[in-house]
Queue: 3 jobs
Job 1
Amino acid sequence: MKLSDIVKILDAEVLTPEVNLDIEVPCAFASDLISDILMCTKEPTLLLTGLTNQQVIRLADMIDIIGIVFVRGKKPPAEVIEMAKERNLPLICTKNTMYRSSGLLFNAGLRSCRI
Amino acid sequence: MLDYAVAESEMAEYWYIRPGYEKAVQKHFENQQEPEVSLESLIREKDFNEAGKGSAEVKNVLKRLGIDPAILRRIAVASYEAEINVAAHSLGGAMLSHIYQDRIHMIFMDNGPGIADIEQAMMPGFSTADEMVRELGFGAGLGLPNIQKNVDALHIVSEAGDSTMLEFLIFFNDNGQ
């Protein structure tokens, strides 16, 4: 599944229009706990989260996050979007809750990341 | 004299060595070898904009050295958790990374206030994080357990009311040889 497909499925807004959305997304993980995200991401993974602070971008310096979906209508501040652009990291946001977003993507065939 | 005696009795130490790594860890601490590369960075109290930068710098250096991605991930996770711990729980401190041919030795030192009970702090789910730290997605009580899961040796020395020193070793080969 491409990230551009995910934007359609989640009826999402793209926060980093400069960044390429034509990338393959093999799996996803959803959490608001940084320690869980760190431990469970062992392969290129799409992250669904409600966290919008700078540390969520710093996580992508540590582990293989290929894009971030902000759920429940949350939008990160401008400096966070800027940090993502510098890293070529796509950010999208959806009004759907974390549970509903995960369900929609799972039903569409996006698997859970290996933990 | 009395104050000193009390402080000493409150000092706590914790050691973990991954089974099979005892000899390699002992050799590291006995030999006092000169590292190939050393990096240092400051960690400021509750500075969650900058925290994580030091770990990213170390990761980039190791990546350029061609360290295996699975090992690199273990180093990055342990380092980031330890760096965040200093920012979230202490009055600030510093991290020091010594890179050798076959291993990395990372040391995190802070200016207090120390860990009262290290065994308790090692228990998954135990946290003393405040509300601000939790809102940022930290404080799940998984930091120290996550560090231990990813390292080959972990050593913590702390004194309640004083500083904490956490150091770990990760070998670049699977068996530490």
Job 2
Amino acid sequence: MFELYKLQYICFYMKVVLKIIAVAFLLGFVCMGKKVEVVTFGQLQEQAALKNNDTLYVVNFWATWCGPCVKEMPFFEESSKIFANEKVKIIYVCLNSFKELDGVERFVKAKKIQNEVFLLNESNPNSWIDKVDGGWSGAIPATVMYKGGESIFFKEGDFTQVQLDEAITNMNKTIITNIDQK
Amino acid sequence: MKKINTLFAAAALVLFVAFTEGGYKVGDKAADFKLKNVDNKMVAMADYKDAKGIILVFTCNHCPFAKKYESRIMDLDKKMKAKGFPVVAISPNDPTVEPDDSFENMQKRAKEKGYTFPYLMDETQNVAKEYGATKTPHVYVLEKQKDASYIVKYIGAIDDNCEDASAVKEKYVENAVASILAGKPITPDFTKAIGCGIKWKK
């Protein structure tokens, strides 16, 4: 009799534990920011620069250790809400070492970043900086905007919310004529 | 509307070009400066009577990229000083924006690490502006001329792999110095790398 009572008790206890685990798991998914994907420069270009459509791609280069970058990230998050009904997509390209993926993911989660984050895996920046913009010295933050497969805006340095919204508003008006009409 | 946008884009481009075209290009004459070293003495390029050139490095305390290059900058000085190209490091950041880069912290850092080269504070940020430095680290290899003036021979990164010194394929700065000494053209004489933007005075 005593043994049965003990078994029931254990079963009940285990059910509760399982429920807690399941809830925690679900909550984790909901609360978690976007997962960070490690990409090469070529793969990154496919995500924005080479997209031949009428969406405005706003690509922000940053790193967790870059003070002004981290400071302006909430502005980008806010802009993505302001332009939620427009064809505007914000993409973050993290320039931390690709070996720091875990740390970057933790950062993205802690800051509740909702837009897509890529971590660039390229060892020699001299090989790709000019492909983003010839005028970019390599200092971050830097932001480039693409529409219809063309670069239409570049800025080295940080934004205020007003400046960013203004730039997005202006660039979003750009009419691209060479989109594939397939 | 499209026309307006084109105009806007053109204006932005002109502004941008005007803004970024400042600073030296390879082949330009480099102006001398007089800046305070961490030992409180003033340092100028003219002080280097016997040098064949100078490896001028804009760097700083706080920037992780500068930190990753720190030991390589120290090695450069040890290796290149003997060849007549000593390192001169300049911290261009405004310490009110980045307290890690205060003069006291620069002194601390230089002492802790045992810098064998001057670590100067560009308090007015005029040297960084004149040279066109935008980030840390940002290197200028200068060759001394017969009239004791300096010509910019190389601008850019120290090498092609910030992350892993052992995986470096091209040592840009060392190659530039070797080419100058051998009287050969420098290739590449201009490179780009990711760095921390200089913290300008607000």
Job 3
Amino acid sequence: MSVAMIFAVAGLVAAGTFLVTSRSLSRVVLGFALLGHAAVVALLAAGGPAGAPPIVDGQSADDIANPLPQALSLTAIVISFGLTLFVLALARRQQVLTGDDLVEDDVEDRRIATTEQAREAAIDETRELEQSNDQQEGGS
Amino acid sequence: MSAVVALCVVLPLLASALVLGLRRQAKIRDLITVSTLAAVTGLAAALLFEVDRDGTVVLRVGDWAPDLGIVLVADLFAALILVVASATILVVELFAIGQRRTPAGADPTVVSPILLVLAGGVALAILTGDLFTLFVAFELILVASYVLLTHQGHESQVRSGMTYVVINLFASTLFLFGVAIVYSATGTVNMALLAERIPALPEATQVGIGLWFLVVFGTKAAIFPLFSWLPDSYPTAPTSITAVFAGLLTKIGVYVMIRFFTLMELDALGPLLLVIAGFTMIVGVAGALAQDDVKRILSFHVVSQIGYMIMGLGLFTVAGVAGAVLFLVHQIPVKTVMFLAGGLIEDDQGTSALKKVGGLATSKPVIAVLFALPALSLAGLPPFSGFIAKLALVDAGVASGAYVIVAVALVGSMLTLLSMTKIWLGAFWGDVTPSAVPASSRRSVAIMQGAAGLAVAGTIVVAVAAGPLWRMSEQVAGDLIERTPYITEVLTEEVREASD
């Protein structure tokens, strides 16, 4: 595996992961495209050094490139192409429903967060009341 | 007999293409779907009988040598799980036929063909003897599940569907990297060859590969801490869909984990697996206790129960793996029927929130029975299948001296019983709430209850046939730990002649 290939994979994975963690689905799609490329490059690199096209026409088996990772990569490319389309369709549906393509919070998470906030607000309020009561008592 | 192995994968996919064209002929479509799924279940049962009697059946697709082509391997483990899985999909399809044309029901023109694709993908994932074909099978299952989860296009489904799709896409990409790593380390993707070459690698490489695939399969199986997508997305789908997801998809992840980790001799990960198992049990059940909706409670239980199977695997003994296999066989029908019962509640009351439902034990005694039997089994009370499976696991844990995980498993069981009691108190006792079924509803309660009843019968069969099943589980576990039957059957010089 050449160093250039390793850096190519590393760069693609870094950029892809950064995009996938984004809230906007269109960026997530781009992120997965990059990650898919990175996986394909890694697969090809795993197949050993580059060589002549793997066609049996009198060449010795030592000269040609390993055809198995190429076949695996093709399958992986087709699958990731189909899934990219599905995620785009999902993003479109989200846009129709809510006007944007942002990934939303979990409903339960939000509920817990709001009850937490409400409780904190209530605690603060009672504290303020107690303080003002104390001040009044101190003043009288 | 090797033709049967191929038919289990090909038949549902062919039927799916056929059914996709029959958008208007509902009767023919249902007939084809149900008869195909029934045929696959029958073939799987015949395969199990054959494999149990004569040993592993190996199919070399296109007659290629195993290191070049794809092999499908039906050993006892694969055949056993295939029977349970295809029977489960059949029951769910029957339920979906009964439930259609209600707001909660799935669209039959979509569900029939996609469920068949799912059945084909599940069969391929169970039977494949090749790491890359396993990736393709996972994709087949996942694409089907993406469509099933989001096909109604409701806002909640699109929201949770995104989380589900993004997490699973990421796991699939990691799987692909894993294939690249394994290929560059060993030069093959055939599992039997990997089983010979991976244990020969340096120990650090072995552990690295093991950890990588623990993350990949663990995301599919929803183990701690990779489970957070599951309780968020499962409850939003139509009930019949949630039932097949909860009963089957995570269990396929567990099946593949058991297969991969035993075959690659990754015993070094055993202690880590036990820690993960303990956290999965407790965190899952604690999440369930905090919920107040039947479907959400059950979704957290899916996570919690995965912990028990991982515990059996983590012990890496014959008794432990046998317990995990038996637990898998018990868990698939039980989990499915619990969600179907949850679906019957939702169908009758219009909601499955515990605060809004009550008194079903008097108003709908059939639903109460359909819920109570698997609930007791899930909590692990005798004489149900859950008790036998948990007893086997606890016994194996004590035999290995892993007392901490045994204690955690027992505490988890108690908490499971507690949260089942919570559903029972909330939904089945208390003041009777009126049924919320619109008069114009075209659903068929008889078919829905019949399908759920079939699944309950399945769980009882697991309990009654515990003797033979335990014998099979022990044989499966012995073969898995031993590894040689699998490797020699796949790599034998002579192609095994079809014995039919």
